Amino acid sequence: MRRLSVSLRWKFALTVTAVCCAVAAVLGVLVHNAVARQTVGEVRKDAGKDLDTALVLFEYGTSREGINSVVDPPELPLPLRKLVRSGRRGSMVGAYRGQSVMWVAAPANGQIMAVWSPYGSTRRSLEEFDTAILGSAVLAAAVVALAGLFLAHRISRRLTTTAAVARRITAGDLDARVGGEGRHPGRGPAGYDEVAAVAAALDSVAGSLQSRLQAEQRFTADVAHELRTPLTGILASAELLPEGRPKEMINDRLRALHRLTEDLLEISRLDSGAERADLAVYELRPLVERAVRTTGFDTEVRITAGSDPDTVVETDRRRLDRIITNLVSNAHRHGGPPVVVTVDAPADGTPAIEVRDHGPGFPEELLHHGPQRFRTEAPDRGKGHGLGLTIAVGQAAVLGIGLRFGNAPDGGACARLELPRYPEAGH
Hints:
Elements: H1 8-59, E1 69-71, H2 78-85, E2 90-96, E3 99-108, E4 111-118, H3 120-170, H4 194-238, H5 245-272, E5 280-283, H6 284-295, E6 300-303, E7 312-315, H7 317-334, E8 340-344, E9 352-356, H8 364-369, H9 387-399, E10 402-407, E11 413-418
Parallel strand pairs: 6-8
Antiparallel strand pairs: 1-4, 2-3, 3-4, 5-7, 8-9, 9-11, 10-11
């Protein structure tokens, strides 16, 4: 069952409206009771005076003209009749000759002396007063609800802006700031509320995070640059060593260190955000086959049935080569044979390149959080620096293409790269 989601703005407005309605209801009841008690009391008081006069006149046998008095009236309400029979005096609203009246009755020589006073106008006045109270309460609730909705909208808009900036920062845009959008521009300390405090804290966190990442990027780039020159010299010097197993081991380790240095330099350039793609038009199949050959690994290239052999894409060949070679190398080093690169180029669909091995598959952490540099240790998948997949993701971002990682149902890791088709390929 789908849960109904209510925004903070409407929660705030509904809460304010509910509180306003509750207050209006309580005040309405109190005012109604007070006014009704006073109005009915006045009618009962006047009728009581007439009853006192009627009792005196009845006792002396004098005519009761001018007074609405009746002895033992059949219309007298039964509760009031019982009350008077018990020897007490009382009053009650009832009816007499088809009209609403206020009855006041008392014992009179074994009989019941009752005086009635018209009550219809009083009842109508009370009903009109209740209608006025209800109308005022509804109007007040509507005004308060609109005011609450307006205030909640302003708060919600500022919180939404802050949340949007937080999502941009999470996505990697460390230049994003809430700034004046989350606060009241031009206001002093009085305008600095809790929402503005949250926005300021987010900006502070983003600024601190950006400074630290920039410092780490500069450190990585500086270290890589400082290592490159002596490494080049050491590689050249190692070639002068006599042939043999020691020379091979030294050259192998030096080449690995040289590749690591170049990878660090490339990552520092990608992190800086200054990389731009040099786009050109290429045929997809030869492009993939050439990139796979340069890896030096035994890799099968397949073309899916129904693919267009003349599919043309617009891309940066150097960067795409780098992505494919890194994916293929990673599959051979950390996966299991056979490694297959599949080119899927439907005539009316999105061209895609899929690199799959038949090893243990990608670890769950990588599938959920993506590749992380220097964190590739996983059961049954070997060890590495984690830079190959990180560079592939970074280069794909520069090209603006999608790169997804997953595991095949029957085992093995699968990386799928989707490329944009050249717009004029069909013309």
